[in-house]
Amino acid sequence: DTAVSQTPKYLVTQMGNDKSIKCEQNLGHDTMYWYKQDSKKFLKIMFSYNNKELIINETVPNRFSPKSPDKAHLNLHINSLELGDSAVYFCASSPQGGRNEKLFFGSGTQLSVL
Amino acid sequence: GENVEQHPSTLSVQEGDSAVIKCTYSDSASNYFPWYKQELGKRPQLIIDIRSNVGEKKDQRIAVTLNKTAKHFSLHITETQPEDSAVYFCAASWYTDKLIFGTGTRLQVFP
Fold it and tell me: A14 in contact with B at a CB cutoff of 8 Å?
């Protein structure tokens, strides 16, 4: 019954590897996001998709590639992982795009790059 | 681009006291100001929000005030309880769903 679910919860990997984080929402929302929370707890938007279309693409390295196969899913693939990528990544969704509504966050994926 | 400053970074209060967290924003076009609470190891959750056509909004022990002229908004928690201990984030956006978050305030409520 989880509204926004993301997997895995923990991800430990070596530098240079490629990894993916999956996100699914069962709320029927149109808009989905990826946020990064660093070690100082600073929350920063990375991407947003509205109905499978990319809306927001912040200054994120090209190594990060979001993919939205349908409006209920937004996955994040990261190539050539670096130490600085270590953070908690939160997926989120909101009902409609462009109306500034409540964000529903997933439980987060703690990524540790060794 | 939009910038949101949040103060203080840490706040310790005695149970029953009030807590106030303040934020300022830079983009005068911003029109939506939510507050999120993040308990340790958990996801951020919306606790209250305010839009630019309103000056104040209250929900039980929490309230938010907005001063558009000065471009600042504040979160007020009255009669604090230990379960209010968490990190609180303010945020601002202008229509585009691009929420810019403040740097967070770690609130500790001591029994």
Answer: no
Q: Which residues pair with B27 in a beta bridge?
A: none
In this prediction, residue A102 carries a pLDDT of: 87
pLDDT in tens, A23-55: 999 999 999 999 999 999 999 999 999 888 888
Determine the Cα–Cα distance for residues A106 and B13; give it in Å rounded to an integer: 30
Q: For chain B, what is the total number of helices (H) and then of strands (E)?
A: 0, 11
Contact list in B for residue A41 (CB cut-off 8 A) is 38, 87, 103-104
Nearest CA in chain A to B31: A100
Residue B26 has which token pair? Answer: 């830079």
Residue with tokens 């989905």: A32
Listed residue (B70, B98, B72, B95) closest to B4, CA to CA: B72
Dihedral angle sign, alpha carbons of residues B2, B63, A29, A78: positive
Which tens digit of pLDDT belongs to each residue from B28-74?
A: 889 999 999 999 999 999 999 999 888 999 999 999 999 999 999 99
pLDDT of residue B42: 95
What is the spatial distance between Cα A48 and Cα A19, in angstroms, rounded to a whole number?
20
Identify the residue whose tokens are 């795009």: A97
For residue A92, the model assigns a pLDDT of 95
Among the partner-chain residues A41, A56, A107, the one whose CB lies closest to the CB of B98 is: A56
With CA atoms as reference, the chain B residue closest to A57 would be: B98
Tokens of A44: 């920063």
